Amino acid sequence: MRTDRCGDLRLEDQGRTVTLCGWVGRRREHGEHLAFVDLRDRSGIVQVVVDGAADLRSEYVIQVEGTVRQRPNDTANASLATGDIEIDAQKVTVLSAAEPPPFPLDDRTDIDETLRLRHRYVDLRRARMQRNLAVRAQVNSAVRTAMEEQGFIEVETPMLIASTPEGARDFVVPSRKEPGSFYALPQSPQLFKQLCMIGGVDRYYQIARCLRDEDLRADRQFEFMQLDAEASFVNQEDVLAFISYTVASATESVTGQRPGEIPQISWLEAQERFGSDKPDTRFGMELVELTEVFAGTEFRAFQADCIKGIRIPGGADLSRNRLDDLTEQCKQWGAKGLVWMRVEADGLNSPVAKFLTDNEQSALRQTMEAQEGDLLFLVADERPAVRHILGLLRIEMGRPPVTEGGLNFLWVVDFPLFEGIDEAGNPQPAHHPFTMPHEEDLELLASGDLLNIRSQAYDLVLNGWELGSGSVRIHRGEIQQQIFSLLGISPEEAQEKFGFLLDAFRYGAPPHAGFAFGMDRLIAILAGEENIREVIAYPKTQSGADPLTSAPNPIDDRHLEELGLRVLPPRQ
Ligand code: ASP
Description:
Elements: E1 17-30, E2 34-41, E3 44-51, E4 61-70, E5 85-96, H1 113-118, H2 120-123, H3 127-149, E6 153-154, E7 172-174, E8 182-184, H4 190-198, E9 203-211, E10 223-232, H5 236-255, E11 264-266, H6 267-274, E12 288-289, E13 306-312, H7 320-332, E14 339-344, E15 347-349, H8 358-367, E16 375-381, H9 383-398, E17 409-413, E18 418-421, E19 427-429, H10 444-447, E20 457-462, E21 465-472, H11 477-486, H12 491-505, E22 512-518, H13 519-526, H14 557-563
Parallel strand pairs: 3-5, 6-9, 11-17
Antiparallel strand pairs: 1-2, 1-4, 2-3, 4-5, 7-8, 9-10, 10-22, 12-13, 13-16, 14-15, 14-16, 17-20, 18-19, 20-21, 21-22
This protein binds aspartic acid (ASP).
């Protein structure tokens, strides 16, 4: 139906007769009959000069036959790739009429998201969405190529499965053949990829759809895509190298530049310096240790397990209102209080300055390398609380927008095996129950000093977003049993839930390790979007609904009957 795509035409095409198809964008009248019409397809926009364009409205689908000609000099448009030329239309055919679009399609307007999603097919025509989908396709393709270059093969795993152990709520699907029984939709292909290793696949990957019934946020959807990978006869460094190579290729496919080697930081160091296990290293404002400075202080509020501070360069002019708001915010994050200090020429200006000795004040200024005009924030509390609160405050004060500050990938390694102890006294796995403890810490398993056991688990972080996680796996049944029992999972329960995995271990399991990272998050950052919904063709809203198809929706009684289900009235 066409000889060319709109966005591809250039001055060299001058004089050619072309046939183009696309949507009518903006039009500008020129005298009584002539109109300039922007014709748009996926490749871009070209200006068409139409004589008698009365019946061409916005978003009509048309076919144009015409000649490419140079625009008169003073009308060339340097901001448009096709801006040197225009099409002198000889024949225009309307292929499809259109109602006026529900919202303007230029990229400048802020449009209600529900409206956009309800008419996603119109929204997708916008240049920004077209670009985001193209970035997505590029990243998918680069990831596949990079994994294959490294000897991985793509294996597809099922969607209807028994529950997986990622720790979120499952989406379930009722079974018609066995009323009262349910499939779970995979939170990840975790168990299947481990079984692939036992099955001799050696290096597996998949761009896998994962489903988790969790509350949605800007960087979270019910369903999302992961690059999921697993390899046999490898250690942690091998996995980091595979994944580093792949994200470098993905990045290069979009930016044209290959990022350098990805630095590593231990979980503990990340917590101490950045107050986070996913530090955004695009900016400084690191947490400074002050516990020693106030070791002998008379000031009650500073007689705490730990004191740390952050320095906001040039922040002394923050208004009192803003400081009060930040204090309130910190309390909501769980702080007992927040101490602020303005660094002035003649000393520290702060409500607590009078409680601190001159020595303490000067040691503080020195340790924090404070300059006149800076603002200091201090928190005193238990160590984990101090790290947590200052970590959040640091982000609040310093985080650059997604499009600034470059791409800072970071490996966080040596995660703890357990992240805490629940009310029933059972430790909670920081990653998942198949993660291998650090070799050096294996003896702590028996000692009861559980929270100090490091694991062979690692996260990949990009600009403060957790891109993904992975670990070296337990490949021996007896260690796996030991971990299950520490987690409070009885042998019967372990058998019932993961018996197939424990059975498989008996038939020759190679040492193996793996990783998964969120494609949506990586693509969003590479496309310069804050919200992953902008890089997903058909996302759900923040409340989990799809305004386009009205999912989720009720099913009829006959269908319920067939599945052996009855719906209870809504809870009061
Ligand atoms: N299955 C894990 C996840 O989805 C990743 C991994 O351990 O490979 O987070």
